[in-house]
Write a structure and sequence with these properties.
By secondary structure, this protein is mostly beta strands. It has 7 helices and 34 strands. The chain has 3 domains: 94 residues, Immunoglobulin-like, CATH 2.60.40.3080; 94 residues, Purple acid phosphatase-like, N-terminal (Immunoglobulin-like, Sandwich), CATH 2.60.40; 360 residues, Alkaline phosphatase D (PhoD) (Purple Acid Phosphatase, chain A, domain 2). Helix content is 13%, strand content 35%.
Length: 601
């Protein structure tokens, strides 16, 4: 028997799962709400061979007990989709709360809650705004707080949902917060595994359960400081081609996120628009991968951030909008940020000044009112007027709109050696800045004003934390400048009862609760050249796993009993001594027998 080396790496994740979570360990999610449709999502873990397809049934209802069933259906998923499931549920009522769940392999998922967009006249819209959740920089306490609020209707995620770095590459070295895979993610299987790793976080699971999300990628869903033709954190040759890597990143994103592909003929296109009654049109931009030139390339006059097609689409949307507010969700800060008159960050709109000037001119020349830009990326909090010709902060003139920048969920603050006060002194259009705190924005919109309230959590290095309200700023209808709010905007009476985290189908699990339980969630990559990683969920530490590898003739190549550890574990098989070809990996725990064919390249 050939001896393969086995590296045991244990990463215990605080996940509020139980054995009844199987096969839906990653929870459920919903997103991209329209007034008559919404996406629902889950990921199923096969019970037998990971090579076989799985049939999944979905249910959509007006209530939690599902006696108000609206629609249901069955879909097939398999390895080609990384066993993810996405359904675009149609013919729904506008501005309505719904509940959904999935069933497969004799078990049921947790229940999710979602809401369609409004049509006709509405008085209010209220959402949370988030960005920049680096797993190795801390616990997702922000998601935990959002999941428990129950005074918002959706979550707007402006990017950096995951980070691409290797273990320790961009890290606060917090116990229990370690990336998988351990390498910088480059291949399709790498990206899939990183999403799987993130989506086992209990706080992220809960936040997705409670609300629909509208999401867009930033750079770290592919690689740091990415643009159409490359990235700062990508080296052609040693890391393959950028076109391949970008394609892998985009494929995994569409698989793992509750997003509707806006154009089936152009899978690189993610920019799209949403309408909420007569109150809001929300345009979601891609300032990273679609039309962006490399920062510093060409000249200021020719360098593009959105690209011609997306720029024309955006201005067309702004010019045609008849709703009260024009919301623009995007990644990098639009307002200027200068130190002693010099832009400090060419990665944001400051590095693309002509395109920004063209946008501001269009807004001014076409009398576009009530432009509110929502921004992520910079890991810090900002409230900005968007200054144009003749801007005068003291007299509230010369702004074309306002910008609210959400802080990070965990990623570290802005690397600048001056304080927020000095920044505001040198940039009089910046009404508020905080460079250190982690948190989120609650955006509250009526026909008379749009207010952003900043909330911060005091600790991300443990799961014990408190939340505090920091400040709020608003812009009034027809007045494109910011005013500090006297208090946070009171929540309207909400909503529907939050769905319970441990709810599941009323199936019989008698006797299972006291048993040791472990499950093989995924095997990445496949094909593999040097290393194969097993992602395993375990309930208790007393369970041992039996892992073996055999060739297609049944000859045993490797066999090992390994101890279990409660939580999520990763076992790494080093394949250097194996001949090229196809093999079968068998995994056995007290209750399960699983197998998967894999190719050694």
């Amino acid at each position: 028997m050939r001896i393969l080396s086995l590296l045991l790496f244990i990463n215990v994740v605080l996940v509020g799962w139980s054995q009844t979570s199987a096969p839906f360990y990653h929870g459920v999610a919903s997103g991209d709400p329209l007034d008559d449709a919404v996406i629902i999502w889950t990921r199923v873990t096969p019970s037998g061979s990971l090579n076989d397809p799985v049939s999944v049934t979905w249910y959509f209802s007006t209530n939690e007990d599902f006696n108000g069933l609206v629609d249901s259906g069955t879909v097939i998923t398999d390895q080609s989709k990384d066993f993810t499931v996405k359904v675009d549920v149609q013919n729904l009522d506008a501005n309505s709360w719904y509940y959904y769940k999935f069933e497969a392999l004799g078990s049921c998922s947790v229940i999710g809650r979602t809401k369609t967009a409004a049509s006709g006249h509405i008085d209010t819209l209220r959402m949370a705004v988030v960005s920049c959740a680096n797993y190795e920089h801390g616990y997702f306490n922000v998601y935990d707080r959002i999941a428990e609020r129950n005074d918002i209707e959706m979550v707007l995620c402006l990017g950096d949902y995951i980070y691409e770095y290797e273990t320790g590459g961009y890290s606060a070295n917090i116990s229990g917060r370690t990336n998988e895979p351990q390498n910088e993610i480059i291949s399709l299987d790498d990206y899939r595994m990183r999403y799987s790793h993130y989506r086992l976080d209990s706080n992220l699971i809960k936040a997705h359960m409670q609300y629909p999300w509208i999401c867009v990628w930033d750079d770290h869903e592919s690689a740091n400081d990415s643009y159409y033709g490359g990235a700062e954190n990508h080296t052609d040759g040693t890391e393959g081609t950028w076109a391949d890597r970008k394609g892998f990143a985009q494929t995994a994103y569409y698989e793992w996120m509750p997003i509707r592909l806006p154009d089936t003929t152009d899978t690189e296109k993610i920019y799209r628009a949403f309408e909420f009654g007569d109150l809001v049109e929300l345009t979601m931009l891609d300032t990273r991968l679609y039309g962006r030139d490399e920062s510093g390339s060409g000249t200021d006059a020719t360098r593009k951030l959105l690209g011609t097609n997306q720029f024309n689409w955006l201005t067309g949307k702004l010019g045609a909008n008849t709703k009260t507010w024009n919301l623009i969700g995007q990644q990098v800060m639009m307002a200027p940020l200068e130190a002693f008159g010099i832009p400090v960050n060419s990665d944001q709109w400051d590095g693309y000044p002509q395109e920004r000037e063209d946008l501001f001119n269009y807004i001014t020349n076409n009398n576009i009112d009530n432009v509110v830009v929502l921004t992520g990326d910079i890991h810090t909090s900002w409230a900005n007027d968007l200054p144009h010709t003749g801007y005068d902060d003291g007299n509230n003139v010369g702004a074309v709109g306002v910008e609210f920048v959400t802080p990070s969920v965990t990623s570290p603050g802005f690397p600048i050696g001056v304080g927020a006060g000095l920044i505001q002194t040198m940039n009089d259009h910046i009404q508020y800045a905080d460079l250190t705190e982690h948190g989120y924005i609650v955006l509250d919109i009526t026909h008379t004003k749009c207010q952003a309230d900043w909330y911060y959590v005091d600790d991300i290095e443990s799961t014990t934390f408190t939340e505090s309200y920091a400040t709020g700023y608003y812009t009034s209808d027809g007045q494109p400048y910011l005013v500090q709010a006297p208090s946070e905007q009171a929540a309207f009476e909400n909503l529907r009862q939050l769905v319970g985290f441990d709810e599941s189908c009323p199936l019989d699990y008698t006797g299972l609760a006291e048993m040791d339980f472990a499950d093989l969630i995924a095997v990445y990559p496949n094909p593999a050249s040097t290393q194969l990683t097993l992602q395993i969920m375990s309930k208790v530490t007393s369970n041992n796993y039996h892992i073996e590898v055999v060739d297609l003739n049944g000859k045993k190549i490797f066999e090992r009993e390994v101890p279990g550890q409660a939580g999520v574990q990763y076992f790494k098989l080093h394949l250097d001594d194996m001949a090229k070809g196809m093999y079968v990996l068998n995994f056995r725990s007290n209750q399960l027998n699983k197998s998967v064919r894999f190719i050694k390249e």
